[in-house]
Amino acid sequence: MPEINFQQIMPSYEDMLSAGMHYGRKKTVKHPKMDAFIYALKDTIHLINIFKTREELEKAIEFLKKTKESGGMILWSSLTKHSEAKIIEIGDTLSMPYIKERWLGGALTNFKTMQKRVKYFKEIQEKWANPQFMEKLTKKERYDMEKELRLLTEKFQGLERMTKLPDVIFLSSLRNGGLPFREAKRLGIKIVAICNTESDPSCVDYAIPANDNAKQSVELILETIKKALV
Fold first, then answer.
1. 94 and 115 in one domain?
2. Out of 21, 113, 186, 224, which could bridge 16 as a Cys pair, Cβ 3.0 to 4.6 Å?
3. pLDDT computed for residue 1 by the predictor
4. How many domains does the structure of the chain reveal?
5. Distance from the Cα of residue 87 to its chain's centroid
6. Is 183 among the domain residues?
7. What residues make up the domain containing 139?
8. Is 35 exposed, middle or buried (0-12, 13-18, 19+ CB in 10 A)?
9. Domain shared by 119 and 225, yes or no
10. C-alpha distance from residue 112 to each of 18, 106, 107, 156, 213 (Å)
11. Quick check: 132 pLDDT over 80?
12. Are residues 208 and 127 in the same domain?
């Protein structure tokens, strides 16, 4: 595996600060195991040490790069509206599966059933793209199919590429990732997650200590990962 040129891809500390990557949560919700990544308390808000953020981000990138180069599959999960666009972008760029905003219960633990639903979604897509099939339908039938396709796309777009259980799942926010976290843990799937100060970083394989509540912060992390993996 070629070495990653971190000096070339990593954002500057100024950019990390401008993105608000260092802003944690209120001191009342701090998890004690995040102490190693916190450098100060300001106006009841804990501030994350961005030098530590960079260190842990580099470790996570090396692991994700190794997974990709060895043919492993990474499932990218957005979990929050402000991370959705970038998760879709990284999934499309790397030709890897993703789940948008809302986690589908059983996506991992009920994989066979999920695959049947995804197969049905693909069949509807193929029918919709077939002019010969579509011209045989009545106006109402076309309307009903369009409605169904729209709903299926909202749910399953991005999962067509998940032809097997993933080797790794990326969570854009551990705080919002309760369901995928539990499913991945149950199946022994590795977890990489952005962790704010109220989360337990020890419960995932690679924790990236950073603000998971700011769009700029999450997008900067994902853009850096994308640069390393393309």
1. no
2. 21
3. 61
4. 2
5. 6
6. yes
7. 111-159
8. exposed
9. no
10. 44, 9, 9, 14, 33
11. yes
12. no
Check: CB of residue 113 under 8 Å from CB of residue 106: yes
Q: Under 8 Å CB-to-CB from 228, ≥6 apart: which residues?
A: 4, 9, 61, 64, 65
Neighbouring CB atoms inside 10 A of 82's CB total: 19
Whole-angstrom distance, CA of residue 159 vs CA of residue 179: 17
User: Could you tell me the two tokens for 39?
Assistant: 């450098």
- Separation between Cα atoms, residue 104 and residue 99, nearest integer Å: 8
Q: What is the mean pLDDT of the chain?
A: 94
- The encoded tokens of residue 91 equal 């999934």
Query: What is the sign of the dihedral through the CA atoms of 102, 107, 69 and 65?
Result: positive
Residues 6+ apart with CB under 8 A from 18: 216
Whole-model pTM: value is 0.92
- Provide the token pair at 149: 């396709």
Intra-chain end-to-end CA distance of the chain, in Å: 13
